[in-house]
Amino acid sequence: MSGAAAPVRRRRRFAAFGGLLAALVAALLRADASARTAFVLNDARGARFPLPDLVVPVAGTVRILAALILALAVLLAVRGAGRRDAAVVGVMGGLAVVALLTWAGAGTSISVVSLLRGTLFAAVPIAFGALAGVLCERSGVINIAIEGQFLAGAFTAAVAASILGSAWWGLLGGIAAGALVGLMLAGLTIRFAADQIVSGVVLIVFATGVTSFLTSQLLAGTPSWNAPVRFQAFALPGLSDVPLLGPIVFDQTVLVYLMLLAVAGVQFGLFRTRWGLRLRSVGEHPAAADTVGIPVLRTRYRAVMLGGVLAGVGGSWFTLEAASQFSKEMTGGRGFIALAAMLVGRYSPVGALGAGLLFGFADALATALQRLPVPIPSSLLRATPYVITIVVVAGLVGRLRVPAADGKPYVKA
Amino acid sequence: MRRSTRGGLAAVAATALLLSACGGDGADEAAVKACQITDTGGIDDKSFNETAWNGFLRAEEELGVEVKYLESTSEADYDPNIQAFLDEGCDIIITVGFLLGDATEAAAQANPDTKFAIVDYAYEAEYDNLLGMVFATEQAGFLAGYVSAAVTETGTVGTWGGINIPPVSAFMQGYLAGVNYHNDQKGTSVEVLGWDGADGVFIGSFEAQDLGNAATAEMLQNGADIVMPVAGPAGLGAGTAIQDFGSGSMVWVDTDGYISNPNFAGITLTSVEKKMDNAVFAAIQGVVDGTFAGGTYLGTVENGGVDISPFHDFEDAVPDDVKAELDDIRAGIIDGSISTTP
Q1: What is the dihedral sign for C-alpha A126, A127, A131, A132?
Q2: DSSP string of A105-158?
Q3: A22: which of A28, A69, A230, B159 fits an S-S bond (Cβ 3.0–4.6 Å)?
Q4: What is the CATH code for B29-135+276-299?
Q5: Of A315, A264, A268, whose CA–CA distance to A124 is shortest?
Q6: CA B89 to chain CA centroid, nearest Å
Q7: Is there a contact between A43 and B201 if contact means CB atoms under 8 Å apart?
Q8: Contact assignment for B240 to A371 by CB distance below 8 Å
Q9: Average per-residue pLDDT in chain B?
Q10: Pick the CATH number of A113-371 from 1.10.10, 1.10.150, 1.10.3470, 3.30.460
């Protein structure tokens, strides 16, 4: 494959995708000339500075959006946008989603605040889980036990917040549980050099069994141990009154703010500090790192433990924000979605957040579309996150560069 | 080093297996042994499986039978769980859940000497040793829909389910029909979000409370002030969403939510009760008395198999004339003059 041909071919593939998307939007999303969709831009609980509803004619809007997508496709085909080719595809996808929503909402209204609040809400565990994965795998340890860390974190957070009467204690408990599972993973994979995939699966089964058992034996009989004090939404003064953006971003629980801080912190730490350089070096070439005096095993231990801490925060979300009690297997496979988000985000913290938001949006979109009178079966709509994963992984992410020593135990020669 | 690795893994795996198995206590040999197999969601789901189990507990207390249960954590557990109870010599095996229908039928055919009963499945064929227990939940859902339409302040109510299967959608169907009936009778125009008579909002899970929270928050933001989740424990997410939203109420299903979910008692308008405990108890009693017969049991408003719960904290919020109308509707449902399908 010559150096110049590959990007051009990729660009043409993107352009063809855009053309197909434009054709699909124009052909499938048909509506009467009189049909209108109202986009509600205010929080239903009231807004200090209310915005008027955005009412648009369905047929005209869909046509304009199809034309925009086509124009972008032509741009890609003719000259491309350089390094931003993939971003252009993202914009095309976004326009297609807006067209879909406009069409689906014909004759009724859609709360934009609800859609985007739902996105941020659902993104929290996925982003934390993906961050945990990034830290572990950048240091060379595959962590598929995120689901187990979520369950352990959710359970412990619920019990701690119930008994000690504070969501903060719950968060500490969740962190401790996530870190404990992380320690077990580290012990199995680093100390004993066990197969990392098998260790991860074992820990998921272990966490599922322990939490389910304790729920039946302990929590079922003492409901007061399963009634956690939860984090309440904390409206940032002033900012939360900003129309549209305020209720979406600045009226959230502390876990959402923590997610944004954690992403920024890990991104900075991994790529701008000595600690991050060392962590990445043991994940790329542990023998070389060892030669220059970096303690490979200790660095990996710490990375996996810190990953456990973050996954524990993600697990706490289930019982300190999303639900008012722990129930068996309540994490519902979100740990595996987090794993996919880590790949979609290409092992980068900011990418993890982006992928988390993408999956969160897919969930929120599925719910909104199910409610609207759309002639698509609900079960198919519920598969939206998975369809998006396939499209993004297959078409946009490109070739993943996996940390070179990922999954390989380091045994000193 | 190698050996200790394997030893450590084995220990962890063994603990996990040990902890995920569970069951009741042993008793003397003579007692009738009644065994429940749950669907996913767990025995203490405060809803579906738990209500059926309550029937077992009552049978244990009043009839002195020995009771046991096994939980299914996925559909792959159905057959092994049934086999485990066959091996244990259970006199009656009661499976709880529509999705267990095929596995139960196959087991009943293969083991004619063991009695089987299943909640939420009615078979075309008749078997002497297999009782299908189904519930006309649309009848009770109808009553809940009527009440919701009568007390909504926003003119919009909502409902969502776990998976779109008949035992779930029946609640939603009745709910929609009840709202529509109120609209017809009273000239109101209350709208139902989440179910249009054929399809609607389904979160794809009976465990994921967070998805239930999100689906409910979406409905509240889009104008609903009463939401009925039909999804076992995942439905608890609805209560969380309503508390966070700061207003609204919910209609619980299967069992009286005011009692089973004390932390949401204050926001529980009523519950669509599906008295599986009574049906399960009757089936076990049949085995004890030797009167067990296969076929189909249908719980209705008429035989008390389904109904709505008392309004508890909302007693004053529901006007007396609405309560009186509910009795008329019950009579209408029983004599067939009111149709509970929309």
Answers
A1: negative
A2: TTTSEEEHHHHHHHHHHHHHHHHHHHHHHHHHHHTT----THHHHHHHHHHHHH
A3: A69
A4: 3.40.50.2300
A5: A315
A6: 27
A7: no
A8: no
A9: 89
A10: 1.10.3470
> How far is residue A303's CA from residue A134's CA, in Å, rounded to a whole number?
9
Question: Are the beta carbons of B218 and A227 separated by less than 8 Å?
Answer: no
User: Does B240 sit within 8 Å of A323, measured CB to CB?
Assistant: yes
Structural domain spans, chain B: 29-135+276-299, 137-273+311-335
Read off the pLDDT of each residue in B171-181 and give the average, rounded to a whole number.
97
User: Model confidence at A397, in pLDDT bands (50, 70, 90)?
Assistant: low
- What confidence tens digit (pLDDT) does each residue in B58-97 have? 999 999 999 999 998 888 999 999 999 999 999 999 999 9
B-facing residues of A in 29-88 (CB < 8 A) are: 40, 43-45
Same fold yes or no, B29-135+276-299 and B137-273+311-335? yes
Instruction: Please indicate if any CB of chain B lies within 8 Å of the CB of A386.
Output: no
Chain A closest-CA separation from residue B263 CA (Å) = 8
Q: Which pLDDT score is estimated for B16?
A: 46
Query: CB atoms < 10 A from the CB of B154, how many?
Result: 16
Q: Chain B residues with CB inside 8 Å of A221's CB?
A: none
Restricting to A residues 358-377, those with a Cβ less than 8 Å away from any Cβ of B are: 363-364, 367-368, 370-371, 373, 377
How far is CA A277 from each of CA A139, A304, A406, rounded to the nearest angstrom?
A: 10, 16, 16
**For chain A, what is the mean pLDDT?**
92
Q: Is the pLDDT of residue A401 over 80?
A: yes
pTM: 0.88
Predicted confidence band at B1 (pLDDT cuts at 50, 70, 90)? very low
Asked if B10 has any chain A CB less than 8 Å from its own CB, the reply is no
Selecting from A113, A317, A378 the residue whose C-beta is nearest the C-beta of B199 gives A378
| pLDDT tens-digit map of B218-245 | 999 999 999 999 998 899 999 999 999 9
Percent of chain A with pLDDT over 70: 97
In the predicted structure, residue A345 carries a pLDDT above the cut 70: yes
> Which of A121-130, B2-11, B203-212 is least confident?
B2-11
- Which CATH number applies to B137-273+311-335? 3.40.50.2300
**pLDDT, position A97:** 93
- Answer whether B20 sits within 8 Å of A109, measured CB to CB: no
Kindly determine whether residue A212 and residue B42, on different chains, have CB atoms separated by under 8 Å: yes
Kindly tell me if the per-residue pLDDT of B26 is higher than 50. Answer: no
Domain boundaries, chain A: 5-107, 113-371
Q: DSSP strand E in B126-225: where? A: 130-135, 156-161, 191-193
CB-CB contact of B159 with B172 (8 Å) = yes
- Residues of chain B numbered 72-131 and touching chain A (CB < 8 Å): 73
Question: Each residue of A14-51: pLDDT tens digit?
Answer: 899 899 999 999 988 888 888 999 999 999 888 888 99
pLDDT of residue A395: 67
Q: What's the CA gap between B176 and B138, in Å, rounded?
A: 9
Q: Which of residues 198-257 of B touch A (CB under 8 A)?
A: 199-205, 207-211, 213-215, 217-223, 233, 236-237, 239-240, 243-247
Count of Cβ atoms closer than 10 Å to residue B315 Cβ: 9
Candidates B218, B227, B250, B261: best to mutate against A (most CBs of A within 10 A) is B218
Q: Is A205 on the interface with B (CB under 8 A)?
A: yes
pLDDT digits (tens, 9 = 90+) for B265-305: 999 999 999 999 999 999 999 999 999 999 999 999 998 89
Would you call B43 and A216 a contact, using CB atoms and an 8 Å cutoff? yes
CB A377 to CB B237 under 8 A? no
CA A267/CA A276 separation, integer angstroms: 9
For residue A387, the SS3 value is helix
Q: Which two tokens stand for residue A271?
A: 């790529």
Alpha-carbon dihedral angle through residues A282, A287, A291, A297, given to the nearest 10 degrees: 50
CA distance B194 to chain A (A): 5
Q: Which residue of A has its CA nearest to B10?
A: A202
